[in-house]
Write a structure and sequence with these properties.
This protein has 397 residues and is of the alpha/beta class. The protein is 35% helix and 18% strand. It binds pyridoxal-5'-phosphate.
Length: 397
């Protein structure tokens, strides 16, 4: 059907969208209103860790939706109890609070740290975050983020976020004073262009936090749930953070996120934290189905194997077209171009016929790859083949 048959004028304009709409998805493939297929290396921004409409998720959705959808967060339900205990048994954390988006989980982390500061640190409330970081789109999480320009769009910001530089420990230490309660960072900055915090830096942060009695918060909304080939990216270092947030892959595509903390940090009093949909059995049942697949050692090993294949292919293309290399952990990878052609490449890829390719360009000179974690070798090879074809047209012109 023609795109013009659909009246999109009632939707609030928040971003430039291409003139197409998706009607179906399966695994690594999406289908638009005309039946054209697209190989999807965005996957809802690293959300669909088992691909589109995976059978396991569909089954969990169907079964749980027939049993119970939302009894209220003020009552216990079985899927949320089970998912919480899976998460605590597979991490260094003791308690879980479920929410519905990454930003909401991060808001919870900020509230928890401030409350802990009130109780244990004389009302200290400031949180050191990183330049170019991304923590969400609520006012507080935008204030926590270090995206250029975000300090002025909806000014005034929420007070109390100091910005340091990733992988520069003295830039962190020089900001510490009596009012600082926590340090918060993404183990790999996603939106900034897949920039990993070095393992030494994470260790130094843990030491600083111990020295000054600060909480260390990792935002694993993008890096958690097997994305990097470990269940959580902090596990690449041997540090144990105090608080962690999860989102994106945890729901496999459904709105689900989580705030995890060590026992000593769990200081919310009744009424401090909540939310109408939080920990509902429908989303947590799906989260449970996802967790039981991705947490298996063989599955995480397969993520690393596929990551190698993708990485090697990107390195080959980087040499062939004199690009600036690739980087990343697991199936969160970026290819650095030698020009600002990323948006052209994204357009060209989408417009390929008969099959399109969906790519993401978080920076004008950078492509980011976030396939489903069960992407096949053949699909990775197809991506590389299509990239080669596009680069020939765009980069060699
Ligand atoms: C996507 C993302 C968020 C925000 O998650 P939403 O579900 O969009 O609110 C927060 N932190 C990081 C690191 C992210 O990648």
């Amino acid at each position: 059907m023609e795109f013009s048959k659909f009246d999109v004028s009632s939707l609030m304009e928040i971003t430039k969208r291409p003139d197409l709409l998706f009607v179906k998805g399966s695994g690594s493939w999406l289908e638009d209103q005309n039946g054209k297929r697209y190989l999807d290396f965005i996957q809802g921004w690293a959300v669909n860790c088992l691909g589109h409409s995976s059978p396991e998720m569909v089954l969990a959705l169907r079964n749980q939706s027939q049993l119970l959808i939302n009894p209220s967060p003020a009552f216990y339900n079985i899927p949320s109890i089970n998912l919480a205990s899976r998460l605590t048994h597979n991490s260094c954390f003791d308690k879980v609070f479920f929410a519905n988006s990454g930003a909401e989980a991060n808001e919870g982390a900020i509230k928890l740290a401030r409350k802990w500061g009130q109780i244990h640190k004389n009302g200290a409330y400031k949180i050191i975050t990183m330049k170019d970081s991304f923590h969400g789109r609520t006012i507080a999480t935008m204030s926590a983020s270090g995206k250029p320009g975000w300090d002025t769009i909806f000014a005034p910001q929420v007070d109390g976020f100091l910005k340091a530089e990733i992988n520069n420990i003295s830039s962190v230490e020089s900001l510490i004073d009596d009012n600082v309660v926590a340090i918060m960072l993404e183990p790999i900055q996603g939106e900034a262009g897949v920039i990993p915090a070095h393992i030494e830096f994470l260790k130094d942060l843990r030491n600083l936090a111990d020295k000054y009695n600060l909480l260390l918060i990792v935002d694993e909304v993008q890096t958690g749930m097997g994305r990097t080939g470990k269940l959580f990216a902090y596990q690449y270092s041997d540090i144990e953070p105090d608080i962690m947030t999860l989102g994106k892959g945890i729901g496999g595509g459904l709105p689900l996120s989580a705030l995890l903390a060590r026992e000593e940090v769990c200081v919310f009093a009744h009424g401090d934290q909540g939310g109408t949909y939080n920990g509902n059995p429908l989303c947590t049942a799906v989260g449970l189905a996802v967790f039981d697949i991705i947490s298996k050692k063989e599955f995480l090993d397969s993520v690393l194997r596929k990551a190698d294949r993708l990485s090697n292919g990107l390195i080959y293309l980087s040499h062939k077209y004199s690009l600036l290399g690739e980087r990343g952990f697991g199936l969160l990878r970026a290819l650095v171009l030698s020009s600002n052609d990323a948006n052209n490449i994204v357009e060209e890829a989408r417009n390929l016929t008969p099959e399109g390719l969906l790519l993401n360009a978080p920076r004008p000179n950078l492509l980011r790859f976030m396939p489903s974690l069960n992407v096949t070798d053949a699909e990775i090879d197809l991506l590389l083949e299509k990239l080669d074809y596009i680069f020939q047209k765009i980069i060699k012109k």
